[in-house]
Amino acid sequence: MHNQLIKIGFILVFSTLLIANGQISEFHATRQNNAVLLEWATESESGLKSFEIQRRCDQSPWLKIGSVSAAGETTEKTYYSYIDYSVYKPTDSSFSYQIVLIYQSGPNVTYDTIVTVSGSSGIRHTWGSIKATFR
Fold it and tell me: In the chain, how many domains are there?
């Protein structure tokens, strides 16, 4: 029982240190017309330089599509966003996104949450099918 309490205490302390160093607390992707809006937040940051945005289609390799500068040093919740204008394609493929935290010194950390959006809207896909019927 004593060893379990020590392990739980270690996990709580380690988790707190990760959040204090710039761990992402939320990450969302929303389709907007012909683009995808990515939004995320950190609870606080220490030594964080930037965020690298990566995307993949279906199960292809991850591709860096952009970066966003970080506040770097803050103890307040900070919100970020990135718009992927190059994602729209009339396809049924899915697009997945992940964020890599780039630090001033030390190893980069890939945030473990991946968000996914569908490749085409149902309305555009249906309209394309209707037009094809009358050709």
Answer: 1
Q: Where are the beta strands (DSSP E) in the chain?
A: 24-32, 35-42, 45-46, 48-57, 63-69, 73-74, 78-84, 94-103, 109-110, 115-118
pLDDT of residue 99: 96
Domain that holds residue 47: 2-133
Q: Number of helices and strands (H, E) in the chain?
A: 2, 10
With a CB cutoff of 8 Å and minimum separation 6, the contacts of 81 are 37, 38, 39, 40, 68
pLDDT at 92 over 80: no
What CATH number has the domain bearing residue 106?
Answer: 2.60.40.10
Q: How far apart are CA 37 and CA 28, in angstroms?
A: 8
